[in-house]
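Regression test case RT-17, inverse folding.

Input:
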């Protein structure tokens, strides 16, 4: 039977991977391919070779309204990949990690792309099981639009305190390049950041995302905040609470087994690399010693520009998914 345009909006097997000029790129997927794909950007691992390019103009002007999505929003490099992978249970839900179309919609601010992205990422194999989307940094600035689609959607807002965030975001040349790139892509929100030092850019990005989370808590009653350090320190109860909040079937014993298994003893973005919380803490201590001047510079920037930062952290703590 020939594939129709309507079919593209029904089955997750037809995954809208990205927008490329005037075309929408669909790649073949199955449940196993979603589980294998740690990210759904250029690192996607499709179910088969090949792609289908469909003119965006040929897709519905008003695509089907998105079904409910459970969200993981995060400020980057704070354990979101680990959390999303731990929640990925092939028999109990569908998890999409960083769909590229949603990021493209956030950066472009095109309503057409936003409608197509949100419609297609909400597809599911079983209508009774949740679809969970782990977004990425630019999508945090779409939070009002996403909340308008479904204010009651469950969401986790994953964040770090300033010093912990700086240690994560400034720890290598590659991370600093990412920082410059992402702040450059968000000039519609930040303006021109070219004159800022890396530490100041990092402070700016941290504060802007916390403000976005603070605003989201006012319009999304089922949003809960999660300090990543609590997740790292006590992963089993946090994982169990996260699963319960997002509607994923998981017992305390399940969570304990997952957090004591290989996922939590390897690097979440590269399972071939051994890594656990002890290694993370040792690395962070070394990084913080090396970042003395950067830490001071970022703190000064926050003192001058983020008078609301402490209040936001207090608000996030009051909206905590689980008590520390």
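Golden output:
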């Amino acid at each position: 039977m020939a594939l129709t345009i309507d079919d593209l909006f029904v089955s997750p097997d037809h995954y809208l991977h990205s927008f490329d000029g005037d075309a929408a790129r669909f790649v073949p997927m199955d449940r196993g391919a979603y589980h294998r794909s740690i990210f759904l950007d250029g690192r996607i691992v499709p179910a088969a070779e090949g792609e289908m390019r469909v003119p965006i103009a040929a897709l519905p002007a008003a695509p089907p309204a998105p079904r409910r999505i459970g969200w993981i929003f995060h400020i980057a490099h704070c354990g979101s990949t680990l959390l999303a992978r731990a929640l990925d249970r092939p028999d109990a839900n569908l998890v999409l990690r960083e769909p590229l179309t949603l990021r493209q919609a956030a950066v472009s601010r095109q309503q057409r792309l936003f409608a197509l992205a949100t419609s297609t990422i909400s597809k599911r194999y079983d209508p009774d099981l949740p679809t969970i989307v782990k977004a990425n940094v630019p999508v945090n600035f779409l939070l009002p639009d996403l909340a308008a689609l479904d204010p009651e959607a469950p969401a986790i807002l994953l964040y770090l305190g300033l010093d912990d965030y700086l240690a994560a975001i400034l720890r290598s040349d590659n991370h600093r390049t990412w920082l410059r790139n992402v702040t450059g892509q968000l000039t519609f929100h930040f303006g021109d950041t070219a004159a800022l030092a890396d530490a100041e850019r990092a402070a700016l990005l941290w504060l802007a995302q916390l403000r976005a989370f603070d605003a989201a808590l006012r319009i999304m009653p089922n949003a809960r905040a999660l300090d990543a350090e609590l997740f790292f320190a006590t992963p089993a109860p946090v994982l169990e609470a996260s699963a319960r909040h997002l509607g994923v079937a998981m017992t305390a014993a399940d969570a304990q087994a997952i957090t004591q298994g290989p996922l939590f003893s390897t690097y979440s973005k590269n399972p071939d690399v051994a890594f656990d919380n002890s290694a993370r803490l040792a690395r962070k201590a070394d990084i913080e010693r090396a970042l003395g001047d950067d830490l001071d510079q970022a703190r000064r920037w926050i003192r001058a520009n983020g008078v609301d930062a402490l209040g936001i952290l207090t608000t996030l703590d009051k909206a905590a998914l689980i008590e520390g």
